[in-house]
Design goal:
Number of strands: 3
Largest sheet: 3 strands, antiparallel
Strand content: 5-15%
Strand order of the largest sheet: 2-1-3
């Protein structure tokens, strides 16, 4: 595992929280991720690097989600609930 990467447990926890919350859009800096699973598990070099670049922000999201907070207030980190399911 490269330095600065999320652990397998952190990825699984983030993915489970994301699914439990209805797959909200995750905004990290200027990038909007509609599929958190693709960000966390992609083998594409560019996407994997983006995930590593945002490891601290993803850990902050995980910590807040572990405390059952759906919204993440931060200038560069936003998590919004998905559209209501009909």
């Amino acid at each position: 595992m490269l330095d600065g990467e999320l652990t397998a447990e952190e990825k699984q926890a983030l993915l489970q929280h994301w699914l439990d919350r209805g797959k909200p859009t995750v905004t990290l800096d200027q990038a909007r991720w509609f599929n958190l699973k693709a960000l966390l598990y992609s083998r594409d070099t560019y996407v994997a690097q983006r995930c590593r670049d945002h490891t601290p922000a993803l850990r902050q999201i995980l910590a807040l989600w572990n405390n059952n907070q759906a919204e993440v207030p931060n200038e560069s980190i936003k998590v919004r609930p998905g559209d209501p399911k009909i």
